[in-house]
Each structure stands twice: as structure tokens, then as C-alpha cells.
Amino acid sequence: WKKVEVFCKFFKLYYYLTSLFSGDKYPTSDLFFHRVWPIQYELLEEAKNCDCVINALVMKMLRKFDNYWEECSLILSAAVVLDPRYKMRVVEYVYTKIYGRVEGFLKAQSVHDFLIILFNEYKEKNSSGLIPSGPSQMQQVSKTQMDTSDIYSDDFDTYGMGKNIVEKSELDMYLQDPLLDRKQDLDILNWWKSVENEYCFPCLGKLARDVLSIPMTSVASKSAFSVGGRILAPSRCSLPREHLEALICTRDWVFGLKEEDQGHMDAAAEAMLSLDVNASTSQGALSKMLHVD
Questions:
Q1: How many Å apart are CA 41 and CA 100, to the nearest integer?
Q2: Which segments constitute the HAT C-terminal dimerisation domain (predicted)?
Q3: Which of 177, 152, 165, 210 is nearest to 85 (CA)?
Q4: Where do runs of H (alpha helix) occur along the chain?
Q5: Distance (Å, rounded) from C-alpha 162 to C-alpha 173?
Q6: Shared-domain flag, residues 208 and 224
Q7: Are 248 and 227 in contact (CB under 8 A)?
Q8: Range of the domain at 36
Q9: Confidence (pTM)
Q10: Same-domain status, 223 and 279
């Protein structure tokens, strides 16, 4: 039963993740990091299990997980950095927890470096990108009794002026700002679209909107909810379980129909895709389509 308990724990994590990423709300990239890293952490913990069966299963799962994680971890880790409630702190925390202090720091630094490269690519497409900070002009100093204005040549006035201005990119300014309360319900895309942030982070805002809008669906659009190879709709759709069961059952009912009656099957499928009513109404409409009493 201990083995079953371990398996159920894994299946629960995967079921929750699959339900989230295959649901009808089309989650985006900001959810990926928060939902996926606990799976890697649990796999690494169970890899230490002394049971041969569990260890072999976990190691196989971990190899497959690492293949997917290595391919997409940078861009999807960058997505969570663009959440003003977490930024780099959550990446450093998670990687340190999973890989240890040294390796975790290096992996977190690679995410930061990747974000810099990505930001620079966006900055090249826009004329702005640097926000000067620090004193814009030297304070006027009252004359002393000894006038030293004639001691230095004119080029002294411009010598070293650049040293008094610290140029910070939008990315630097964003990362240095305090974190927002992580417990608040925040619409991240709307936060980046706000007038204040559009003004302060024009280039970084474009990057954030592109990265945060990456869809996180876990199934291919053309094969989603296909029954026996049939594409139910030209675009990806996510149907409630009851509708999917009704479609599969309907296919069994009409499997023996003649070719000329196949139109009823197609009409029934289209009806199921378009109906947004209660179960009894759906059943009645479907029966009418199939001429079933």
C-alpha cells in the first residue's frame, strides 16, 4: 500500500497539471513555473527511495521530465520573473531548493542572463530603453573667497560628467522595484498595460506581453478531443467530460449506419460542440438529430 500511496501522489500532481493546462480557460506561461517545479521536486525526492520498483519508475519519469524542462525552462522561467509579485526571487528560491545553493544560483543566473539578451533584442527595435537615474545637474555652489574659475581649461567642465550618471535599463529598474504582495489577485497583463507602466517600461512591457501570452496547452490543437481520428472542430476546443462521453457513446450507436446516414453523425457532433444548455436539453436535441426516441 505504500507503493500505491506514492503512485497516487504522483498521479494526483499530473492529473491536476493536465486538467489545468488542458482546460477551457487556456492558461498562459505565467502559471507554468509555479505548477511544474513541485513535480520536479517530488521526483527528485522520490528518486532517493530505496524501493527498487519506485526508484526505477521515478528515474524513468525524471528523464522524460528533464527532456521537456531543459527545452522550455528559460523562457517559461523568464515569464515568472515578469510577474511583479515574484521577479527573480522566486527563481532563486526554487532553483536553490531543487539543485542546491551553488548549482541553483548558476541556473538562476542563466535565467537572468537570458532575460537580458531577450530585453536587448526588444530594445534594438525601439529607440528608448535606457532610463537615466541620479543627479541630472550639479548643484550650484556659492563662490568662495578665492576664485578658481581661471585655473582650469574649458574641457574640465565636461571631464568625467558621464561618471555622475548611472544608466539603468528598464529591466534593471523593474527588478530593483519592491515586490508586490504575492497574495493579491493580480491580472499581470493588465498590470503591464497600465498607463504608468506603459510610460516607465515601454520596451519591457512589450516583451512582457509577448512572453506572458504564450499558451500553455498540453495537447496539439488538431488532435484535441479527436475520437477515432476524427477532427471535431477546425480549432482547438475543450469540452466538458459529459459532452465527450456523449460523443463517444453516439459514435458507438451510429457505427453501423450507412454512408448516406453519416451526415446525422456529423450534425450531432456539431450540435454537441455548439450547445450551451443543461443536460436534459442537450439530450433532447441530440436525440432529435439522430432520430432516436
A1: 12
A2: 170-254
A3: 177
A4: 2-21, 32-46, 52-81, 87-99, 101-124, 170-176, 188-193, 195-200, 202-212, 241-253, 262-274, 279-290
A5: 19
A6: no
A7: yes
A8: 2-129+169-212
A9: 0.58
A10: yes
